[in-house]
Amino acid sequence: MSKKKVLVTGGAGFIGGNFVQYMVERYPEYDVYNLDELTYAGDLTKHSGIESKDNYHFVKADIADRETIIPLFKKEKFDYVVHFAAESHVDRSITDPEIFTRTNVLGTQVILDAAKSIDITKFVHVSTDEVYGELDFDPTTFFTEETPLQPNSPYSASKASSDFLVRAYHETFGMPVNITRCSNNYGPYHFPEKLIPLTISRVLNDEKVPVYGDGKNIRDWLHVQDHCSAIDLVLHDGTSGEVYNVGGHNECTNLEVVKTIINTLEKSDDLIEFVTDRLGHDKRYAIDPTKLEKLGWKPTYNFETGIAQTIQWYLDNKKWWEQIISGEYQSYFEKQYSI
Ligand code: NAD
Ligand code: DAU
């Protein structure tokens, strides 16, 4: 019997990269294809441990390039598609929104058309809790799958648009799909433009850490390995057409996150620099994961154990993040922050 083929788009990025490694190790009976354009956020050095494995394959391609994507699907006849590829950073969507529409909306449309042209078993669209907009600080309120979509940034608006396209391909063409909406991830290979790896890398270099506004905005943090296990479960057991929220009840203010990292690394809070707030900065995200828990999912990390593991990973893998921050990131950082 031939092996099942799993296509992972965006598998050179942070979450897609962790997911590719998870799938290659966990399912030797699957052929795992990592399709990625290798934008500033994509990097293949993270896959040095799996690149020689028989069940790992890499395809360099742009998801919005119809002329390449459709023939590829017709040739390979993938069984499963897990779609991560996207522009993912909110701050970049504020300064340069157009690429977000092209990649996240048009790119998703092309991947859907390609999947429609073959007979797939399941298409999982990896979306985000940001499509729901923001919550206020009342700790008893959560995003559920029924919360109306009210995206506030160009990034979340593009993700919400792609969610609607995925839903439409299920309703109109009967495509077997799931949409997952996860809260903020952290863990190994997180690109240092995002709060947690930015803080760890800057604190390790004794550099100031920019905290937006008063630092009281709340995010609900989930270790990337727990996101991978959630997607694995939804891919195999999720009911077609359903949305699943993913989150582990780990709400923290940004200031708490930054101080935890500074304290763990035994540095001084003087490294904190309050800077101008992000435009349209969402106040609070918090996920109700009951539906996914009923499917059988349980996270393995809480924030305390996950952040300790993550800080240790950045201490052990300085070469990886130093290589990242010496590239395009340098000019990005100078444009974004005046600290
Ligand atoms: P990332 O920015 O680290 O990685 C994105 C990857 O997509 C990169 O490897 C990049 O090269 C690739 N890519 C970008 N444009 C492409 C194109 N046109 N064609 C092919 N590949 C392209 O992103 P991430 O943080 O790993 O997020 C992955 C997905 O998960 C995104 O869809 C994001 O919306 C979603 N998500 C992220 C989080 C989070 O906390 N980071 C939480 C929930 C959902
Ligand atoms: O909720 C899921 C989303 O989480 C994903 O869909 C996005 O792809 C991902 O980037 C993330 O979005 P956020 O905007 O929440 O993550 P970010 O790490 O950029 O910021 C986290 C919080 O920290 C946010 O309130 C803004 C704040 N922040 C961020 C940066 C980069 C700072 O205070 N200073 C900073 O330098």
Q: Could you walk me through the main structural features you see in this protein, from its secondary elements to its overall organization?
A:
The chain is α/β, with parallel strands linked by helices and 339 residues long. It folds into two domains: 4-185 and 223-246, NAD(P)-binding Rossmann-like Domain (Rossmann fold, 3-Layer(aba) Sandwich); 188-219 and 250-280 and 302-329, UDP-galactose 4-epimerase, domain 1, CATH 3.90.25.10. The chain contains twelve helices and twelve strands. The protein has helices at 14-26, 66-76, 90-95, 98-116, 154-173, 195-204, 224-237, 254-264, 290-295, 303-316, 318-325, 329-336, and strands spanning 4-9, 30-36, 56-60, 80-83, 122-128, 177-182, 184-186, 209-212, 218-223, 243-246, 251-253, 272-275. The strands form three sheets. A seven-stranded parallel sheet has the order 3-2-1-4-5-6-10, sandwiched between helices. Strands 7-9-11 form a three-stranded mixed sheet. The longest helix is centred in the middle third of the chain and has 20 residues, at 154-173. The chain is globular. The relative contact order is 0.13. The site of nicotinamide-adenine-dinucleotide (NAD) has 28 residues, from helix 1, helix 4, strand 5 and strand 7. Nicotinamide-adenine-dinucleotide (NAD) binds at residues 10, 12-16, 36-39, 41-42, 62-64, 84-86, 88, 103, 107, 126, 128, 159, 182, 184-185, 191.
